Amino acid sequence: MIKIQTESAHSADATLLIREAVQELRRRYPGFEANEYSASEADQAGAAFVVARLDEAPVGCGALRPFETEEAVEIKRMFVREDYRRRGISKQIVAFLEEKARQLGYQKVVLETGTKQPEAIQLYHLSGYHRIPNFGEIKDETICVCFAKDL
To answer: Residues 89-100: pLDDT tens digits?
Structure first.
């Protein structure tokens, strides 16, 4: 059974998962620098970091980061380790993050992913997200796609 909980993004398990997520992004997008995510971002008001575990082993993570407006939050660093994929863990992490966003008072969730991550795009479609124009630093990047969902 998957157990998901909020925890410090500075923990050893969180650090490991963030590092693996960045390594995967670099493999999929050579030469394209992934938007940075610093563990200290989870320390700010309105933010959160979650770790998913299976039998106490860290298998995935995700984060919430305040967005451009007070009513919106951005999902960052959604990641499930390769050996644990196709088990519905990412869907559970997204649902957990959405519930956490509601608890924090947000009305909308936004996120960005890449065109070389079709499984992520499918996850967000199946989770009720819709395409929106790219935002921020990736506004003009054709390999990036952005999504949103009203809570």
So the answer is: 999 999 999 999
Please check the confidence at residue 143 and state whether its pLDDT lies above 80. yes
Considering only the top CATH level, what class is 2-150?
alpha beta
In a 3-state reduction of DSSP, which class is residue 5?
strand
Q: What is the mean pLDDT of residues 2-29?
A: 94
User: Residue holding tokens 């990047």?
Assistant: 141
Cα-Cα-Cα-Cα dihedral sign, residues 36, 38, 41, 42: positive
Whole-number Å distance between alpha carbons of 39 and 36: 10
User: In what helix (H) or strand (E) does residue 65 lie, and over which residues does it extend?
Assistant: strand 57-66
Q: What are phi and psi of 20, to 5 degrees?
A: -65, -35
Tokens of 133: 């124009």
80: its two tokens: 């499930």
Q: Which amino acid is at 136?
A: G
